[in-house]
């Protein structure tokens, strides 16, 4: 994926800005596939008979699978020029997620700090994963490094139409 003109720079973000992603319905295939690539075959996730003996009464999605899905949902809510994820703070797993549940990612800018001599900034995001009933199933802070808007001079030199906007040559030829 490359950045487009709709992707926000660090400078475009203000503390308090909020976004809500589209929804994603968790499937049994998602749960089984996550077990396969993570190696987490805990029976609470994949064994229907075992799950019937638990308070949940059916298999639950892996907490980190839900975190990853929410991260993917957050890519476009908002679309940001993210350079790296730096850390996750105080992440809370509050409710189980089941196959058939639809989740959304609610994201809010909590803090901003300029880094890298103004070339990038650190954003602390509050993120909540909410199910179809509006219940928060996970929440916490995600900290990312976001590209700052280039200085005007640098932006002008790198703009695709910079050559077209250059003054005509003064060598006398037309």
Concise overview:
It comes from Frigoriglobus tundricola. By secondary structure, the chain is of the alpha+beta class.
Give an overview in words.
β4 and β5 form a beta hairpin. This protein has helices spanning 28-38, 43-46, 48-51, 63-74, 152-158; strands spanning 18-20, 24-25, 82-93, 102-115, 120-130, 136-147. Strands 1, 2, 3, 4, 5 and 6 form a 6-stranded antiparallel beta sheet that branches. The chain is of the alpha+beta class and 174 residues long. Helix content is 22%, strand content 31%. The model has no long low-confidence stretch (mean pLDDT 89).
Q: What is the total number of structural domains?
A: 1
Mean pLDDT: 89
CATH superfamily: Hotdog Thioesterase
Give the amount of beta strand, in percent: 25-35%
Shape: elongated
Structural class: alpha+beta
CATH topology: Thiol Ester Dehydrase, Chain A
Largest beta-sheet characterization: 6 strands, antiparallel
* Total beta strand runs: 6
Q: What distance separates the N and C termini?
A: 42 Å
CATH architecture grouping: Roll
CATH class category label? Alpha Beta
Given the structure, what is the number of helices? 5
**Uncertain segments of ≥5 residues (pLDDT<50)?**
none
Specify the helix fraction band.
10-25%
Radius of gyration, Cα only, in angstroms?
22 Å
The succession of helices and strands, N to C, reads EEHHHHEEEEH
Protein name: MaoC-like domain-containing protein
Organism: Frigoriglobus tundricola
Blueprint (SSEs and pairs):
Elements: E1 18-20, E2 24-25, H1 28-38, H2 43-46, H3 48-51, H4 63-74, E3 82-93, E4 102-115, E5 120-130, E6 136-147, H5 152-158
Antiparallel strand pairs: 1-4, 2-4, 3-6, 4-5, 5-6
